Structures are given as structure tokens and as C-alpha cells.
Amino acid sequence: MHVSSGRFAAPLLALAALSGAAAAEPASVASVRAALESVGVEKTRSAILYGQPMLSAELQGLGFVAGLRRCLGDVAGPQRCEEVALKACLPLAETNDRVAMLEAANRFNLNRYGGTLTIDKTEDLGPVVCTVVRVFLDDDNSFGLDEAYQWSQALTDFRSFIMDEKINLRGFSLL
Fold first, then answer.
1. Could you give the CA distance from residue 142 to residue 51 in angstroms, rounded to a whole number?
2. By mean pLDDT, which of 4-8, 49-53, 101-105, 134-138 is the weakest?
3. At what angle do helices 145-164 and 29-37 cross, to 10 degrees?
4. Taking the mean position of all CA atoms in its chain, how far away is CA 66?
5. Stretch 43-60: mean pLDDT, rounded?
6. What is the pLDDT of residue 11?
7. Could you give the domains of the chain?
8. How far is 140 from 157, CA to CA, in rounded Å?
9. Rounded Cα gap, residues 64 and 87, in angstroms
10. Model pTM?
């Protein structure tokens, strides 16, 4: 029995087109910086920390860092990265109960706010409350305006939640 290849050509071409469209767009420090600055990010500084590109900046009055991970390329040259992790933290007052803070983090994370709320402890600041957004540049995802707005919304949710929950920070002017 002879099977015509024309019958399978269209589905194979469609499959090939989809696989090409699914290629991820790796991010560079410059592309992440440009996307973030388009939503009002200020005081942007970039650096290489332990071989990984980093940005630090401010948005909505909150300082944050953006770490680019899973990077390809020379540290001295332009690197293209497959993950961007954004994180903003605020120092907690010593009066906060750790169990109550963990329950607050669970409420935040279960309510599907933008970002993930974590409770952590640092050498410099002591206990902190943080919001984190991780953007994986897999499939057809790239770091652009949508991801920058997602981070902006995550910071808005973070600030609102801290005020609504009356979480005590080490300084009243931090929000």
C-alpha cells in the first residue's frame, strides 16, 4: 500500500512551527533592566555576584534585587539567562511572634497574591519578611513588560498585606 506524504506534510509543518515558537528567550541584564525601568523602577545598579548577574533597584519605594540565574556566556561579556528571581525584604520588629508570622505567610501564599511571602533571617538585619517572584524563561516565556508588571503587582500586594495584617516592621517609614 502506498501512502502519500502530502497527507502528513501539513501536520508536520504545524508541529515544526510550534516547536520553533516554543523556544525560550533568555534574558540579559540589559533586557531585564529595560523592562523593569518601563514600569517605573529607579536607582538601578548592576553587578556580578558569585559569577551571577544581579540588579538592585527601587520600585514603589521598596528596594529589591533581581538575580539572573542559569546563565550562559562569559562573565566578562554578555550573559543570557534562563531564570530571573526578584526579591524584596523588610526587617521585622522583634515583637513579632515567629509562629504568627509563619501563619501570615501561609495566608498570603494560599490567597494567591502576586509573589510568594517568606519569613527569613539575615546576618545584617535579623528577621525579615520577603516577597519573591521567580520567572522561568522556558517554553515561549521571555522577561518583558508583563513580567515587570507582575513584579510591580507583587510589591503592591506585599505592601497591602503587611499593612492589613498589621505586621510590625523595624521602622514605620519602610512602607
1. 22
2. 4-8
3. 60
4. 7
5. 88
6. 38
7. 25-174 (3.30.1460.10)
8. 27
9. 6
10. 0.78
